[in-house]
Write a structure and sequence with these properties.
single chain, 332 residues, 2 domains, three-stranded parallel β-sheet
């Protein structure tokens, strides 16, 4: 796609440039994005990988940049000078996007802790897996979703080559966007792509070791099905089956707007029109609250971040799916 068009949102050329140079949308270092695993002593080689696509790790920095985009005006047109300056500094070898985001990131510790919980829960279930650490690549899903098909194909081939070099057979995926990419897009764009992609919930259900889970106090929850997981991949029953195994937890469904009829969290347009994403998130929060539950769970980093913002100041609490599992395993 041509990147010089005056009608192209200013954030998109930066994302493409970052992908080309650093392999992720914000140009963050591999050391930064893999720091959540420090101290876990995860093996770096194995036929089965825990694959995060760096989604949760990137969220704190994306939130910072979205705040700046809001100040730039619709589609970032008002911030052309800022975007031009950023591109110029990139050509000089200075990563202004990543540097600025890193200095002002919010909730970095929280989102890193969630990725850590995914690894710890898998371990407690007896699942053997490795983690590529600083070498873990981003899936490239954002490129495809924004219409950069050629750039996506180029990136997908790089990821596929890395998997082959590391003899990866299976990836346990925490990102609905990445799972969709691996199952539906990579086979179309990468000849011979044959890596088996499992969602985190599918991996738990396949695990030989079953562990009793129980919360210390009764908890009513509702489930926000991420669009990419429910609508595209039809993964809706697996999370519910796992929640049914947690004692002291009661699932209350959102009337009508659940499973494949789930509502949007607003995140898909956040980097283009954050002012439109906010009311979409607020509407979804109202739908989730209509279930009668005090807590809403989701299984997507972007849904989590957007719904947390939408629920700010509201009675509904928004959590990641794995947070409740982690609590139930710790409290049992």
């Amino acid at each position: 796609m041509k990147l010089e068009s005056p009608y192209l949102p200013k954030a998109l050329p930066l994302i493409v440039e970052n992908m080309r140079k650093s392999g992720n949308p914000l140009g963050m270092s591999g050391a930064k994005l893999s720091s959540w695993a420090n101290g876990l002593d995860l093996p770096s080689k194995g036929e089965t990988l825990l694959y995060t696509s760096c989604d949760y790790q990137l969220i704190p920095y994306m939130l910072t940049l979205v705040d700046q985009i809001k100040r730039m005006g619709p589609f970032g047109y008002g911030g052309s000078a800022l975007a031009s300056a950023a591109m110029g500094l990139r050509r000089l070898g200075l990563d202004v996007t990543a540097t600025f985001a890193a200095l002002t990131a919010k909730d970095e510790g929280y989102y890193n802790s969630i990725v850590r919980m995914y690894a710890e829960v898998l371990r407690k279930y007896g699942v053997d897996f490795a983690y590529l650490g600083e070498e873990e690549p981003y899936s490239g899903a954002l490129l495809y979703e924004f219409g950069f098909a050629e750039e996506f194909a180029e990136h997908a081939k790089k990821v596929s080559r890395l998997f082959k070099e590391r003899n990866v057979r299976t990836v346990i995926v925490t990102s609905p966007h990445a799972l969709e990419a691996f199952r539906l897009l990579y086979p179309k764009f990468v000849e011979g792509f044959d890596v088996n992609a499992l969602h985190f919930t599918e991996a738990l259900l396949k695990a030989k070791q079953k562990i009793p889970m129980a919360l210390k106090e009764p908890l009513d929850v509702t489930l926000h099905d991420p669009c990419h997981l429910a609508r595209t991949l039809n993964i809706t029953e697996e999370p519910r089956e796992i929640l049914s195994q947690v004692r002291n937890l009661s699932l209350k469904e959102v009337p009508y707007a659940n499973k494949r009829w789930t509502g949007c969290c607003g995140a898909p347009i956040e980097t283009l029109l954050p002012s439109l994403a906010e009311p979409v998130a607020a509407k979804r929060v109202e739908e989730l609250a209509s279930s009668g539950a005090g807590t809403a769970l989701t299984l997507c980093a972007f849904c989590l971040a957007n719904l947390r913002k939408g629920a700010s100041g509201k009675a509904l609490k928004v959590m990641d799916f794995v947070e409740v599992l982690h609590q139930a395993l710790e409290a049992k």
